[in-house]
Design brief:
The complex is a heterodimer of chains A (114) and B (235).
Chain A: E1 12-14, E2 17-19, E3 29-31, E4 34-36, E5 39-41, H1 58-68, E6 79-92, E7 98-113
Antiparallel strand pairs in A: 1-5, 2-4, 3-6, 6-7
Chain B: H1 2-5, H2 17-35, H3 50-60, E1 86-92, E2 94-99, E3 104-110, H4 112-116, E4 119-130, E5 139-148, E6 153-163, E7 168-173, H5 175-183, E8 188-197, E9 200-201, E10 216-223, H6 225-234
Antiparallel strand pairs in B: 1-10, 2-3, 3-8, 4-7, 4-10, 5-6, 5-8, 8-9
Classes of the chains: A mainly beta (114), B alpha+beta (235).
């Protein structure tokens, strides 16, 4: 999976980090100190569709059938997350109770073309 | 040129740099709030004493609290067997006046959010700081009672002899009692703690005059499956 540089033209992962102190959320979020809200961007030209690794989606299945049968269509492949990981958070809820929760699929690790 | 300034994915004209960052920060905020099932960010009106917070976190995540007091969260997940809806809560006691001539202490805990959802208590324990005994006899008998506010009943939950020559933290399992409480519609979970030595309350108000010794209750809970099925069918 590619990591986006300044000019992201091909499907890649764009790093984006929010520090809770910068948005004045550090008083209720005890840990971690910030959130990696990475996202996917960029084009998926036809020769890249399905690489790296197939994004498991209905769209991918249909698209590969079309391609396998040589049907050229206007359908294009999309740049989507193909690997995510959870984020463990410790925070105060509105009753000042400390909650520790593992929030699934919060951080995009890598992107690929469907 | 126009193409180079357009969004590579959707072709929309690119935003100003500052605008884009603000937009992404708003998305990040909304995503965190929705994943934590919060409508808005909680307002912390009574900051918890930092010492109490650090003690609780240190007890929960031994070895995970860095020197500067921040929490090392890498690979610090709740045990996967509990299922992915499991989470941990730490509730600090509201200490009510010492009763029966200062020999016992009433503690009450609030679990409003857990009450609104049907959750299953996987395990729960009360953490209590016990002052060192004067040493006239090595053990101190600690008794934990469940208080039923409505009926005024008091039920003995745990009776245990503590080795109390040195002060320190002790844990008392309250899993079943907390589950009963969450299943009934009571407002607060009340416990009475009694650990007396020669007329002195070793775990009473005086005992934790320092904020880092404030008692707290830890629970590992999971949303009940039937509740999440309900959500599925709704979808």
């Amino acid at each position: 999976s590619l990591r986006c540089g300044e000019d992201a033209s091909v499907c890649c992962k764009k790093d984006f980090y929010v520090k809770f102190r910068d948005i004045h959320w550090q008083d209720w979020i005890i840990a971690p100190e910030g959130y990696h809200m990475n996202y996917c961007m960029g084009q998926c030209p036809q020769h890249l569709s399905g690489s790296p690794g197939i994004a498991s989606s209905f769209h991918a299945t249909v698209f590969s059938q079309l391609k396998a049968n040589g049907i050229h269509s206007a359908v294009s492949s999309c740049c989507v997350p193909i690997q995510r990981r959870p984020l463990s958070m410790v925070y105060f809820n509105s009753q000042h109770i400390i909650v520790k929760m593992d929030v699934p699929d919060m951080i995009v690790e890598s992107c690929g073309c469907t | 040129d126009a193409a180079s300034t357009a969004c590579p994915t959707c072709g929309r004209p690119a935003m100003e740099k500052g605008e884009e960052e603000r937009y992404l920060i708003e998305i990040a905020k909304q995503q965190i709030l929705s994943k934590l099932h919060l409508r808005e960010r909680p307002n912390i009106t009574q900051p918890l004493p930092r010492a109490a917070l650090m003690t609780a976190l240190r007890k929960l995540h031994a070895g995970r609290v860095r020197q500067d007091g921040t929490l090392d969260m890498e690979n610090n997940f709740i045990n996967p067997q509990a299922g992915n809806q499991a989470y941990e809560i730490v509730s600090f006691a509201t200490v009510e006046d010492d009763v029966s001539a200062g020999i016992s202490t009433h503690l009450s805990f609030q679990f409003l959010q857990e009450k609104s959802r049907s959750v299953q208590v996987l395990q729960s324990s009360l953490w209590m700081y016990v002052q060192p005994a004067n040493g006239s006899h090595p053990g101190v008998t600690a008794e934990i009672y469940l208080l039923e506010k409505d009926s005024g009943n008091r039920t003995l939950l745990i009776q245990r002899t503590l080795e109390a020559t040195r002060g320190g933290w002790h844990t008392f399992p309250v899993t079943t009692s907390l589950q009963h409480f969450l299943d009934k519609d009571q407002t607060s979970f009340g416990l009475e703690v009694h650990c007396e030595e020669d007329g002195r309350n070793l775990c009473g108000h005086g005992a934790f005059s320092h904020s880092s010794q404030q008692p707290f209750l830890v629970a590992q809970v999971r949303q009940r499956d039937d509740d999440s099925e309900h959500i599925l069918s709704k979808r």
